[in-house]
Amino acid sequence: MNISVKLIVFKILPARLLSRLFGYCTRIPLPAFIMKKLISWYSKKFNVALDEAFIPPGGFKNFDEFFTRNLKRGMRSVQPHPLALVSPVDAMVSACGNINAGQLIQAKGIKYDVASLLPGQFQSQFISGSFITLYLSPGDYHRIHSPVSGTIVGYQYDPGKLYTVQDWLVKMLPGLFTVNERITSYIQSAFGLVAVCKVGAMNVGRISLSYAPVFTNHCFAKPYFYRFDETRRPKVSKGDELGIFHLGSTVIVVTQKPVSFVPNIECTRVQMGQVLGYF
Q1: Are 148 and 194 in contact (CB under 8 A)?
Q2: Which residues contact 214 (CB under 8 A, 6 or more apart)?
Q3: Residue 88 and residue 143: Cα distance in Å, rounded?
Q4: Which distant-in-sequence residues (6+ apart) come within 8 Å of 163 by Cβ?
Q5: Spatial CA neighbour of 140 closest among 197, 76, 202, 185
Q6: Domain boundaries defined on the chain
Q7: Is 31 exposed, middle or buried, given 0-12, 13-18 or 19+ CB atoms closer than 10 A?
Q8: Is pTM beyond 0.85 here?
Q9: Could you say which DSSP state residue 2 is in?
């Protein structure tokens, strides 16, 4: 199919409704023999490392339980260096760099404003920092962790479209990550604010937070910001869980202070806890 036609199709599809229905289907309990065949097929197709997964007693009851699977203890190590920014997810690094004049790079030659990605009261604090974009493939571990230690100031929910984040559309649709639905955790660290922006996409049934009873992809959703009382801000250590993709997408980490990224890290695969760079 011609790429321009594909873009038109994605724009007219009722993606939010389809994604909610798809997400609902993934939570329907299935007989054990069906789950076994489904997991086997999916794991072979998308190279899931099943040997790393923690399988609950009795196995996974539905596809969502499998997709949001936890890892066995010791499967990931978190770099303890105090200046290290670590990866919050298992993913491919699709872009990274410094924020110049308030602009980030979405793809080669395509830029967008940090204010569009992170609307609200904190946007001005990120205009001279750094960013890194991490794309999760269907076979990846889909829990999202904190890239720094600190306290969670609050979170911002921005409802939007649910376009696919496949490479062809990322390159063709400027500002894709600012158009799609997203929920952002703001962490106060020793190096200023760090925003962990979790971006939804086609068939992402929902994104849930681990430190608050919140999930995305509602009917008639409206944007909002929730700020924790200073005395009740959740504390997080590097590697602590922040949220879960119920079907995967993209995480963009934006820092207030500049980061010196590991050389040649762009277009490489990283694991949760691995060093992305140093403040």
Answers
A1: yes
A2: 155, 157, 183, 208, 226
A3: 8
A4: 10, 11, 15, 169, 173, 176, 179, 180, 201, 202
A5: 76
A6: 3-67, 84-278
A7: exposed
A8: yes
A9: -
Rounded to whole angstroms, what are the CA distances from 12 to 1, 6, 173?
Answer: 16, 10, 15
Q: How far is CA 75 from the centre of its chain?
A: 20
- Are 254 and 188 in contact by the 8 Å Cβ rule? The answer is no
**Residue 81 neighbours by CB under 8 Å, 6+ apart:** 275, 278
Query: And the tokens for 32?
Result: 């054990």
Q: 230-249 pLDDT, tens per residue?
A: 999 999 999 999 999 987 78
Tens digits of residue pLDDT in 47-78: 999 999 999 999 999 999 999 999 999 999 99
Sequence-ordered list of residues with C-beta below 8 angstroms from that of 50, at least 6 positions apart, any chain: 39, 43
Give the residue from 114, 145, 115 showing the smallest Cα distance to 131.
114
DSSP letters for 140-166:
S--EEE-SS-EEEEEEEEE--B-----
CA dist., res. 53 & res. 11, Å (int):
36
- Active site amino acids: 90, 145, 249
Type of residue found at 168: W
Structure tokens at 261: 């990224």
Between CA 245 and CA 205 the distance in angstroms is 8
Q: What is the DSSP string of 13-76?
A: S-HHHHHHHHHHHHTS---HHHHHHHHHHHHHHHT--GGGBPPPTT--SSHHHHHTPPBPTTS-
Is residue 84 within 8 Å of residue 278, measured between CB atoms? yes
